[in-house]
Automatic annotation (TrEMBL):
Cross-referenced Gene3D superfamilies: Chloramphenicol acetyltransferase-like domain (3.30.559.10)
Keyword entries, A-Z: Acyltransferase, Transferase
Record family assignment: Belongs to the plant acyltransferase family.
GO molecular function terms attached to this record: shikimate O-hydroxycinnamoyltransferase activity
Enzyme class: transferase
EC number: 2.3.1.133
Name of the protein described by the UniProt record: Putative shikimate O-hydroxycinnamoyltransferase
Length: 241
């Protein structure tokens, strides 16, 4: 049996990359990142959805992209932006319609065969959701969202998403995918889903706590201005992804 590593390598060699952007011009709006957002900048939310051949019969990549351009990304224009820095060096998202990166791949196995391999080695799923960290190439040009379409020998398909956690949590990513699915079915959203800036938090009296160092906690180094962990930097240099 061919190893999952070999299958993933063959899958990578078949990949084609493109981008989709909102149909309407956003106008270079700015989305400020909170401290919590920046604390999660090394994290990514990934998911893979499988569809049998009956569910995607006759479906083309154009059919998958069109609702994104017309309906989805005009609402989620922040997801199509790019990381920039203010004069103080603080990162923010410039909503410049840079686009969401689309990955197309073809697989020599059936959906069932791939899932059977995943039972033995769950890293098999890594090949179905594109893996590129922010700043892996150039931070200013790194997409915040990757969507990978993988077509299987049986006619089935998987949709893999890689969502930068600075955009929001797993619920945000799930809402993004679910709305895209609804637009694929003909639903036309009318209301903007862009979350407005939260009102400023009231200033509360400073609470002075005793200086106690918990024994169960260990202080770790701040990630500072890093967007890649040392492990990711080594991995990026060692692969052709």
């Amino acid at each position: 049996m061919v190893s999952s590593t070999d299958n993933i390598h063959r899958l990578k060699s078949s990949m084609r990359l493109s981008s989709v952007a909102p149909a309407t011009v956003t106008g270079r709006k700015v989305h400020e990142l909170t401290n919590v957002d920046l604390a999660m900048k090394l994290h990514y939310i990934k998911g893979v959805y499988f569809f049998n051949s009956y569910a995607v019969e006759g479906l083309t990549v154009f059919d998958l992209k069109k609702p994104m351009v017309i309906h989805l990304l005009p609402l989620y224009f922040v997801a199509a932006g790019r990381i920039r820095r203010s004069e103080t060096g603080r990162p923010f998202i410039m909503c410049n319609d840079g686009g969401v990166r689309i990955v197309e791949a073809r697989c020599d196995e059936t959906v069932d065969e791939w899932l059977a391999m995943a039972v033995e080695d769950d890293s098999t799923f890594d090949g179905l959701a594109y893996n590129q960290a922010l700043g892996d190439t150039d931070l200013d040009f790194s997409p915040l969202v990757f969507i990978q379409f993988t077509w299987f020998k049986c006619g089935g398909m998987s949709v893999g998403i890689s969502w930068a956690n600075v955009l929001g949590d797993a619920f945000s990513a799930s809402t993004f995918v679910n709305l895209w699915g609804k637009t694929m079915a003909g639903y036309v959203p009318h209301k903007s889903l862009h979350v407005p800036d939260w009102p400023a938090k009231p200033k509360l009296p400073l609470l002075v706590l005793p200086k106690v160092t918990p024994n169960a906690l260990k202080r770790i180094d701040s990630v500072g201005d890093l967007w890649l962990t040392p492990l990711l930097e080594i991995w990026a240099k060692a692969t052709d992804y």
